[in-house]
């Protein structure tokens, strides 16, 4: 390995067993206050429903728990440690003030069923965030209820279906481009729609002629990601919208890539009828190792009667409240009102930015992606030369000749102190390297990333075996995923 | 903008490197007619101190410092401080889904421990991590049963959380899945005769909740027998996870769909919470959501990976077991730390405190009002019927900074002036005695002696 990493890597090699392996009877990390009501006879109260034993639950002390999870945490990469260029995931900085305000007592301890009279603070947050998101998307109304992007898609398609039913028939199909996220077709199936694939053009965009020929009165909606998963803005978006609308169809926008648009262009202005946002992408709420997310759905007026219940309204006395009586609603998509804690964070982010900050954020995100594209063009194959917005997709075509695939390059990138980009997606690019830097990266970090990627390209030429064996600096080397799936071990069991 | 790490000179240098004259060049692909040539109409950029102040105001408008007797699927339990210390570590907070196992072992191992503890507590063989919440977990559990049995309808107990039932109705509607509702008996449990009649040869599963919405523990064994006799599965929803410390788990169930909010997750006005599905090993390939499995690396070292991904949307697309992608990982970590803190002994003691508080409160209420469904065991919730409208009672209680039980008129009009009350280890005897006195006030004219007691309590 002649190439030196200039960025620090960090992988703690301290061993840490499973918590169950540290447990022993009599250790405890809890203490309850003295019981101020009479003790109860559990056997008498619960009878045969009583549980006597909690099996292999652990018994450990507080310091052991602190060390256990702290040690585990050091085995994770994170945005706080450096660039996390996962395409389509928008791994941006998660501001800490968001965490502070979401933990204020009245917000963190508010019960969803407490009277509206003493919930005005929470309702005002719901209303203010709704107003901001409606303005940002250029839509007319919104529901904050969906718990994640895919849940937003589900909610959106339920509204699509209710809309068409109100016109006579739900229609049969949803058109989905071949570059789409897997959640799109999976969602369509859950709402009882057939999926029809829409081929991309040679420029990586919707083939407008093909769309025109595939669009008919059986199609309920087109689910379009814009910019799409190649990071390309659908330049003929107005034609796409017109084709859909001419035959009575709706245009659904997957807002996963909204980080490329905020403050620069509004989907509502270019013909989108409904869309979801991912607050955990564009609006900085933390990914937390896979969630929680939040997937509000913004809609045009024609869909308003179908919004999930409840909806926040201003009451005649000027206070805010929930409206449940909405006979044409698609119903409820989850208990209570959605991932409220994420609304607090997303609103704090919006307030910290203001209109100027939101625009600058988008500009920086697009600037960063183009800078990487320029830096790596010629080193990695660029299958689509169409202009890049917030992310850029290369392929492993050059490196594959040496037997090195996108996943191998990704694993080697770990040794250089970076999280890998998204591998093998979108499906229309064989061996894809999908890179989304977001606005959160300084020029220095981008330069280090470009340098690392160039260095890996050289290594592929000089010593492909070394790249194939990467990562070399992590606590564990590549793991046997085939064995894990063939004979799944999904829980710890005591040695017998 | 303080989150953006670039100087004007950096931006200039980068544009130059790209070969762009200005940033506008990079937005040229957007048709000019759609470009926004004005500021967004959102509040101006605020300083951090202003943001904190704005949310403090909102917090104060939100029952800050009130005691509560609300449960009904969202429970106020104590959250040990180390939960937030640990989940605030950037390595947990700011990491993505652990697709790259070599640099995600922290998240992966902790999920493996979570899966193990959920299995221990529920008596199931496998558990995922995680679903959005208890309501969507229940709906997905039912869909899973439909896939496993090849049947298409569901019998659902009316004693399941009303909002969970609404969510299931939304999910089931477009799957062509008829729902039959099973009434509850006088003891608050699902009516077994009615259940037996409600199951048809096309019933994929029976969905119950235990403890149910009224706090009553269902006779899971009897219900399982009835469901299985007809070839249907049993899906059990658990909304109050702390009950598992002292209530026997529904081992006879085929699928358990739970809400883990009680395990160290703040009430947070209804979310984010943490749904979980647990089941038997033989059904794992029809299970939705992420699973972590143990394996080894090239040197034989133990490690963990996301596994059985062929069930999931990014591989199977329209044939996936669910469209779920982002889940509630960080909330599952909260629950994980909570379970680790209380563990084998603490969780039972904690549940016992809940049981004792609720038992005492129900006894006190019983002196002035009718406590319904006393014929079956309960955990930490119970239904109180009063002569006075519970909304009026709650209005009076609220002036004392106490939020009363949930009036049930909206969900169960047949129960009349009834409300669902909940006590946890956080409910103090002082508050209980005060609130019982305030509820009793409606009968004040009848009993002058009681009036004196109440005033003493309130004071």
Give an overview of the whole structure.
Chain A contains 15 helices and 12 strands. Chain A has a 7-stranded mixed β-sheet, with helices on both faces. With 496 residues, chain A is α/β, with parallel strands linked by helices. The longest helix of chain A has 37 residues, at 340-376. Chain A has 2 domains: 98-350, Type I PLP-dependent aspartate aminotransferase-like (Major domain) (Aspartate Aminotransferase, domain 2), CATH 3.40.640.10; 362-482, Aspartate Aminotransferase, domain 1. Chain B is an alpha/beta fold and 459 residues long. Chain B folds into 2 domains: 67-74 and 344-458, Aspartate Aminotransferase, domain 1 (Alpha-Beta Complex), CATH 3.90.1150.10; 82-338, Aspartate Aminotransferase, domain 2 (3-Layer(aba) Sandwich), CATH 3.40.640.10. Chain B is 38% helix and 14% strand. Chain B is built from 15 helices and 15 strands. In chain B, strands 2-8-7-6-5-3-4 form a 7-stranded mixed β-sheet, with helices on both faces. In chain B, strands 11-12-15-14 form a 4-stranded antiparallel β-sheet, covered by helices on one side. In chain B, strand 9 (292-296) and strand 10 form a beta hairpin. The relative contact order of chain B is 0.13. Residues 445-459 of chain B have low confidence and may be disordered. Classes of the chains: A alpha/beta (496), B alpha/beta (459). Chains A and B meet through helix 1, helix 2, helix 3, helix 4 and helix 5 of A and helix 1, helix 3, helix 4, helix 5 and helix 6 of B.
Report how far apart the termini of chain B are: 53 Å
Q: How would you sum up the global shape of chain A? A: globular
> How are the strands of the biggest sheet of chain B laid out side by side?
2-8-7-6-5-3-4
Count every beta strand of chain B, where a strand is a DSSP E run of 2 or more residues: 15
Give the structural class of chain A: alpha/beta
- Strand fraction band of chain A? 5-15%
What is the CATH C level class of the largest domain in chain B, in words? Alpha Beta
Strand content of chain B: 5-15%
Name of the CATH architecture of the largest domain in chain B:
3-Layer(aba) Sandwich
Rg estimate of chain B, integer Å: 26 Å
Structural class of chain B: alpha/beta
Q: Spans of chain A of 5+ residues with little confidence (pLDDT < 50)?
A: none
Can you identify the CATH superfamily of the largest domain in chain A? Type I PLP-dependent aspartate aminotransferase-like (Major domain)
The oligomeric state is heterodimer
């Amino acid at each position: 390995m002649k190439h030196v990493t200039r960025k620090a890597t960090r992988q703690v090699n301290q061993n840490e067993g499973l918590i169950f392996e540290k447990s022993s009877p009599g250790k405890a990390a809890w203490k309850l206050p003295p019981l101020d009501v009479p003790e109860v006879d559990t056997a008498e109260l619960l009878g045969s429903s009583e549980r006597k034993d909690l099996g292999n639950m652990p018994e450990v002390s507080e310091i052991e728990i602190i060390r256990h999870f702290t040690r585990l945490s050091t085995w994770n990469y994170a945005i706080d440690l450096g660039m996390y260029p996962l395409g389509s995931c928008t791994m941006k900085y998660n501001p800490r003030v968001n965490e502070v305000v979401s933990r204020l007592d009245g917000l963190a301890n508010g019960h969803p069923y407490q009277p509206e009279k003493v919930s005005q603070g929470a309702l005002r947050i719901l209303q203010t965030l709704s107003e901001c998101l409606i303005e940002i998307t250029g839509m007319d109304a919104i529901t904050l209820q969906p718990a994640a992007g895919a849940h937003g898609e589900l909610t959106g398609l339920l509204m699509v279906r209710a809309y068409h039913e109100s016109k006579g028939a739900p229609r049969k199909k949803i058109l989905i481009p071949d570059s789409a996220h897997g959640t799109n077709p999976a969602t369509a199936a859950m709402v009882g729609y057939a999926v029809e694939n829409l081929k991309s053009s040679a420029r990586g965009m919707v083939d407008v002629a093909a769309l025109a020929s595939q669009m008919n009165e059986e199609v309920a909606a087109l689910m379009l990601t814009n910019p799409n998963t190649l990071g390309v803005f659908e330049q003929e978006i107005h034609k796409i919208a017109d084709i859909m609308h001419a035959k009575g169809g709706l245009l659904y926008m997957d807002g996963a890539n909204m980080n490329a648009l905020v403050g620069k262009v509004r989907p509502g202005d270019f013909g989108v009828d409904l869309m979801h946002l991912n607050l955990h992408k564009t609006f900085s709420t933390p990914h937390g190792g896979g969630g929680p997310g939040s997937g509000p759905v913004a809609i045009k007026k024609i869909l308003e009667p179908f919004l999930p219940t409840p909806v926040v309204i201003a009451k005649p006395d000027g206070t805010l409240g929930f409206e449940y009586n909405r006979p044409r609603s698609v119903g409820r998509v989850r208990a209570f009102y959605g991932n409220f804690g994420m609304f607090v964070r997303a609103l704090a982010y919006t307030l910290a930015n203001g209109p100027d900050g939101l625009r600058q954020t988008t500009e920086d995100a697009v600037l960063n992606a183009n800078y990487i594209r320029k830096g790596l063009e010629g080193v990695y194959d660029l299958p689509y030369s169409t202009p890049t917005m917030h992310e850029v997709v290369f392929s492993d075509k050059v490196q594959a000749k040496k037997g090195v695939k996108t996943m191998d390059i990704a694993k080697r990138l770990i040794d250089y102190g970076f999280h890998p980009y998204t591998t093998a997606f979108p499906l229309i690019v064989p061996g894809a390297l999908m890179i989304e830097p977001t606005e959160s990266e300084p020029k220095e970090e981008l330069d280090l990333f470009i340098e690392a990627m160039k260095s890996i390209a050289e290594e592929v030429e000089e010593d492909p075996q070394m790249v194939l064996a990467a990562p070399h600096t992590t606590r564990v080397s590549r793991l046997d995923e085939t064995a894990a799936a063939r004979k799944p071990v999904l829980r710890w069991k005591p040695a017998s | 903008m303080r989150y953006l790490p670039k100087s004007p000179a950096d931006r200039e240098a980068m544009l130059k490197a790209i070969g762009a004259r200005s940033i506008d060049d990079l937005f040229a692909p957007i048709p000019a007619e759609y470009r926004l040539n004005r500021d967004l109409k959102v509040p101006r950029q605020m300083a951090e101190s202003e943001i904190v102040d704005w949310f403090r105001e909102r917090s104060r408008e939100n029952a800050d410092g009130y005691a509560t007797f609300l449960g009904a699927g969202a429970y106020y339990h104590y959250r040990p401080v180390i939960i937030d210390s640990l989940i605030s570590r950037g390595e947990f907070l700011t990491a993505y889904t652990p697709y790259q196992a070599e640099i995600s072992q922290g998240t992966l191992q902790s999920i493996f421990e979570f899966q193990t503890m959920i299995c221990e507590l529920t008596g199931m063989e496998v558990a995922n991590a995680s679903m959005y919440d208890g309501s969507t977990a229940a709906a997905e559990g039912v869909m899973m049963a439909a896939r496993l049995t090849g049947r298409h309808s569901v019998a659902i107990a009316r004693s399941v959380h009303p909002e969970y039932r609404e969510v299931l109705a939304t999910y089931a509607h477009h799957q062509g899945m008829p729902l039959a509702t099973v009434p509850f008996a006088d003891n608050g449990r699902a009516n077994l005769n009615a259940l037996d009649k409600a199951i048809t040869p096309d019933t994929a599963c029976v969905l119950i909740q235990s403890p149910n919405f009224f706090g009553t523990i269902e006779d899971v064994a009897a219900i399982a027998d009835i469901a299985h006799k007809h070839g249907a599965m049993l899906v059990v929803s658990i909304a109050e996870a702390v009950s598992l410390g002292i209530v026997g788990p529904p081992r006879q169930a085929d699928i358990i769909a739970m809400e883990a909010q009680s395990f160290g997750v703040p009430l947070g006005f209804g979310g984010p919470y943490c749904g979980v599905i647990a089941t038997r090993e033989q059904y794992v390939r029809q299970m939705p959501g992420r699973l972590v499995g143990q394996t080894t690396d090239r040197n034989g070292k133990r490690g963990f990976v996301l596994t059985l991904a062929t069930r999931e949307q990014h591989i199977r697309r329209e044939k996936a077991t669910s469209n779920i992608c982002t889940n509630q990982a960080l909330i599952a970590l909260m629950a994980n730390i909570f379970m680790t803190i209380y563990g084998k002994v603490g969780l039972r003691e904690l549940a016992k405190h809940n049981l004792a508080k609720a038992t005492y409160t129900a006894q006190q209420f019983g002196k002035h009002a009718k406590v319904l469904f006393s014929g079956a065991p309960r955990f930490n919730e119970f239904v109180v019927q009063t002569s006075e409208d519970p909304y009026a009672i709650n209005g009076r209680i609220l002036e004392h900074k106490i939020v009363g039980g949930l009036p049930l008129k909206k969900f169960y009009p047949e129960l009349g002036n009834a409300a669902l009350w909940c006590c946890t280890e956080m409910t103090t005897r002082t508050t209980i005695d005060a609130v019982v006195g305030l509820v009793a006030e409606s009968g004040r004219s009848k009993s002058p002696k009681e009036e004196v007691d109440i005033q003493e309590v309130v004071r």
